[in-house]
Design goal:
The structure holds two protein chains of two kinds. Chain A has two helices and 16 strands. Chain A is mostly beta strands. Chain A is globular. Classes of the chains: A mainly beta, B alpha/beta.
């Protein structure tokens, strides 16, 4: 009796001991964090390692002048243009001045604000909030949440601010389906980095309220119809020098008739940039196609199509040449379409300034052939922006 | 006999239940190959390290490809040179990595510039000066003495993540420091004959190497950092080379040597392609190899140069 109790007790005791030992291993994970902060503090207290004969020069300021100010930048976009089919053929304009304020809010999120000043049709400068959104930094399961006003994640070009594009004129399909300023709306965006260890796959799903005064296929509905956008981005390294991106985009939302407009897009980008001399040479091939289905009646819909294809080549550290072909229907009229061809030559003095000359010719049914030439200067001051790929 | 069964079973169970959570290697992503090499030397078999940049590409202009995000999303530790060297490409990668452990301030974030005695810290900054680095020249890994400080910073990062392996990491750190001291004595001895010599460099990325080995930088091929050589700058450089009898023009592997070759043809100087990072050329596999290669190449270049 005595021995059996001892044996049972022994089993329980051993099990408890085992559990405690394993639990101890888990606990040391979380205390490791506290310890790490302590080690950091201690390192700071103990000061820098013994320096040899070379201190920092006399009169130098502290290493990191700490500041909680956001990264502030200001971008100017100035244009001189010629257009054949308007009353004033030659004109010049400060097309846009855009201020960016970007910073981390706290360990959980960052915020980005972009305020843009641009002349309207009368030439009066109007201020507008281009984008303002909060992005999460620490959600689990590879998720990232964005909330605010932002450019929608449709296709390859919509998210990029125009001054950052390697061409000056926006592809006709974007202008016809989204408007000159692109699809820009207010709501939430959730993106998920798929658990794919072989290649990059990112799925973004967005729900926004519908652009007010939208000039494209989507508009704001006073009822419960919202705008939904989804984008699946797939990216492969073909080699260390070449990559391929394939994206699928979809959008569904209210049109001006209160009915649903469906838009689908496929984008494909091939980029060659030799790793060792990536500042000297690169070649990009990009194609995007849009398929639009506009519901106009109980059983009536209009299906239209648009696309563009571009090739760009860099001729040295500072020169880039881009050629692009556009084809686009109008969302309301599949039998009408326009075609355009443009070429842009860009010169980058440094990362902070570029000058581009774009020449475009386009033809549309019922219109004369149109010729356009635009000279654009883009310049940025302030915080160093990130390079795009 | 049965009396001893329990104690023995107990002992066996305790031994087998010793914390085994550290079996998984620490997944480290570094920005540069030099940091990868040092992390491997300190971390040994407890780390699995990949570098985003290769040793032969320009570390200022690494393209932030989405494929790097996959690696970063799974990393336990991220090691960066800092001082804004990577400011053009690391922030967008970290912002999309969905991995708070490796963000600045996170447990896995290691900035190896901590405690480095910096050179060329500007007193005032303006982009008029070209693409300047406002905190100081960031190419500090090219002084082997700084290798010890880099190793110390990486060591502390590893300790945060695997505190129970402290003994192992400490032993590796000591091995690294001892070997570095021994090799450094060799390198300094080999470089002694050319101490005080003038060199011309393409980009201002060698001050730490120059400082350590007592070389003087007579001129840069770039008129200002980040600005490609202009004809007037080349003329200036040629004059300086002739006046000061400079024997060597140093170019990193990711710059086209056309301008340097032009200058070499007009003068008696030789173009020398030094390794700017580990894996810049075949055979440079570790941080030690980097200096073995560069020291040998420079000494040979000076040796074979016309007097």
């Amino acid at each position: 009796m005595h021995l059996r109790f001892f044996r049972r007790g022994g089993i329980v005791f051993v099990f408890l001991l085992y559990t405690v030992t394993v639990a101890q291993a888990q606990v040391s994970d979380s205390t490791a964090v506290a310890d790490s902060l302590l080690i950091q503090d201690l390192a700071r207290e103990l000061g820098p390692a013994e320096t040899t004969a070379n201190p920092t020069p006399v009169g130098s300021v502290t290493r990191n002048a700490p500041t909680l100010n956001p990264n502030i930048s200001m971008i100017g976009d100035f244009r001189a243009m010629y257009q054949s089919d308007v009353a004033r053929n030659v004109d010049a304009q400060l097309h846009e001045a855009e201020m960016g304020l970007q910073s981390v809010v706290d360990p959980y999120a960052r915020a980005d604000f972009f305020i843009s000043a641009a002349p309207d049709e009368n030439g009066d400068i109007q201020f507008e909030l281009e984008e303002a959104y909060l992005t999460s930094l620490s959600l689990p399961h590879q998720l990232q949440l964005k909330a605010g006003k932002f450019r929608s994640s449709f296709g390859k070009i919509n998210m990029i601010h125009p001054h950052a594009l390697p061409f000056i004129d926006i592809p006709a399909v974007y202008v016809n389906y989204f408007g000159e300023d692109g699809l820009n709306d207010q709501g939430v965006s959730l993106s998920w980095l798929l658990p794919n260890s072989h290649f990059f796959q990112d799925l973004t799903v967005q729900v926004t309220r519908g652009p007010v005064g939208g000039v494209g296929v989507y508009t704001h509905d006073n009822g419960n119809q919202l705008l939904y956008v989804a984008h699946l981005k797939n990216f492969w390294d073909l080699s260390e020098n070449a990559t391929i991106e394939l994206g699928f985009s979809g959008a569904a939302g209210p049109n001006e008739l209160g009915r649903t407009n469906w838009l689908g897009g496929i984008d494909f980008t091939y980029k060659w940039k030799p790793l060792q001399f990536n500042t000297y040479r690169s070649f990009t091939l990009q194609v995007e196609t849009f398929f639009n289905r506009k519901n106009v009646g109980p059983d009536a819909r209009i299906n239209t199509f648009g696309m563009y294809a571009l090739a760009s080549y860099s001729l040295g550290r500072r020169w880039l040449v881009v050629g692009r072909f556009d084809h686009s229907d109008l969302p309301d009229n599949p039998s009408w379409n326009e075609n355009g061809f443009s070429t842009t030559l860009g010169f980058r003095t440094t990362e902070f300034q570029k000058i581009e000359l774009g020449v475009r010719t386009s033809s549309a049914q019922g219109f004369d052939q149109r010729y356009q030439a635009i000279l654009r200067a883009v310049f940025v001051i302030g915080a160093h922006g990130a390079h795009a790929y | 006999m049965k009396r001893f069964l329990w104690p023995v079973l107990l002992a066996l169970l305790v031994i087998s239940a010793t914390p085994a959570h550290a079996q998984k290697k620490v997944k480290v992503v570094t920005t540069l190959t030099d940091l990868k090499s040092i992390t491997e030397l300190i971390g040994g078999d407890k780390v699995d390290v990949t570098s985003i940049a290769t040793g032969y590409q320009n570390p200022h202009f690494v393209d932030p490809k989405p494929s790097y995000i996959v690696k970063l999303s799974r990393a336990d530790m991220f090691v960066t040179i800092g001082l804004d060297l990577e400011i053009g490409w690391v922030p967008p990668l970290l912002n999309s990595a969905r991995n708070e452990k490796i963000l600045k301030g996170g447990v896995g974030y290691v900035d190896t510039s901590a405690n480095i005695p910096l050179l060329q810290v500007p007193i005032s900054v303006s982009r008029e000066q070209g693409d300047i680095h406002i905190y100081g020249n960031p190419h500090y890994w090219l002084d082997p003495e700084n290798g010890k400080i880099i190793a110390q910073n990486i060591y502390e990062g590893l300790l945060r993540l695997r505190p129970e392996a402290q003994g192992y990491f400490t032993a590796n750190l000591k091995k690294f420091n001892d070997r570095l001291d021994a090799k450094n004595a060799e390198w300094e001895a080999q470089m002694q004959p050319i101490k005080g010599a003038d060199i011309v460099t393409y980009h201002d990325q060698w001050p730490y190497f120059e400082h350590h080995f007592g070389l003087n930088n007579a001129a840069y091929m770039e008129p200002k950092p980040g600005i490609p050589p202009t004809p007037s700058q080349l003329a200036k450089v040629i004059k300086i080379i002739q006046q000061r009898h400079v024997k060597v023009i140093v170019v990193a592997p990711y710059y086209r040597p056309n301008a340097a070759n032009l200058v070499a043809r007009r003068t008696n100087a030789k173009v020398v392609k030094l390794a700017s990072s580990v894996e810049a050329f075949k055979g440079i596999n570790t941080y030690f190899d980097l200096f073995d290669y560069n020291v040998k190449l420079l000494v040979d270049a000076f040796g074979s140069a016309a007097p």
